[in-house]
Amino acid sequence: VSFTFDDGAKSVLMATKVLEDNGMRSTQFIVTCVQEDNPKFNMSWDEIRELFRRKHEIGSHTCNHINLLKEENRDIVWDEIYQSRIKLAKELAVDIDTIQTFAAPMGAYDEDEIVYIEKAEYKIAVASWGDGPNLGELNPYTLVRYDINNKRNSVDTCKFVDQAIENREAT
Questions:
Q1: 40-91 per-position pLDDT tens digit
Q2: What's the pTM value of the predicted model, to 2 decimals?
Q3: Under DSSP, is residue 108 helix (H, G, I), strand (E, B) or coil?
Q4: Which residues are 105's β-sheet partners?
Q5: Distance between CA atoms of 37 and 110, rounded to whole angstroms?
Q6: CA 4/CA 57 separation, integer angstroms
Q7: Where do runs of H (alpha helix) occur along 1-65?
Q8: Distance CA 152, CA 25 (A)
Q9: pLDDT per position as a tens digit, 157-169
């Protein structure tokens, strides 16, 4: 089970503490070029580095949170995917190979973007469409997630989290 959070929002900081209290970590997908734009909403780079220090994975969510499917300029799509990886490595002071995961904003990507994701040498890409789990033979560039959002009630979300913790303890 993997818990992922998109956009680099400050609101997930409390959730990371709950995960840590249960021996779990998350993947934070960061929009690299806008983190400083809205300090009330976005985590600071210091907060992101602290999560990384506490063993949460930091993944790319593009530079500017654009819809990759709607962008006609393929050079911009490439830059959004690859430059965000470079920026994360620089901000975290790590080798670029440390940044292994990618999530497209709005889950908006298809085979054309997967070519760029592979070229940028990410190991995994996750989608916002679909509703996990990922079973059987998998394409590492089309992993689906169970989307916990304002359309799901708190009871369903708690059941999902409890099930994830039970599954973790059973393995």
A1: 899 999 999 999 999 999 999 999 999 999 999 999 999 999 999 999 999 9
A2: 0.87
A3: coil
A4: none
A5: 29
A6: 9
A7: 13-21, 45-53
A8: 22
A9: 677 777 767 776 5
* Residues whose CB falls within 8 Å of the CB of residue 129, separated by 6 or more in sequence, listed in order: 107, 144
Closest C-alpha to 3, from 55, 75, 50, 70: 55
Amino acid occupying residue 139: N
Task: Pull the structure tokens for residue 146.
Answer: 């169970």
What whole-number distance in Å separates Cα of residue 127 and Cα of residue 84?
Answer: 17
- Kind and range of the H or E element at 4? strand 3-6
Q: How far apart, in whole angstroms, are the C-alpha atoms of residue 83 and residue 86?
A: 5
Q: How far apart are CA 19 and CA 26, in angstroms?
A: 8
Burial 9-36 (b: 16+ CB within 10 A, else e): eeebeeebeebeeeebebbbbbbbebbe
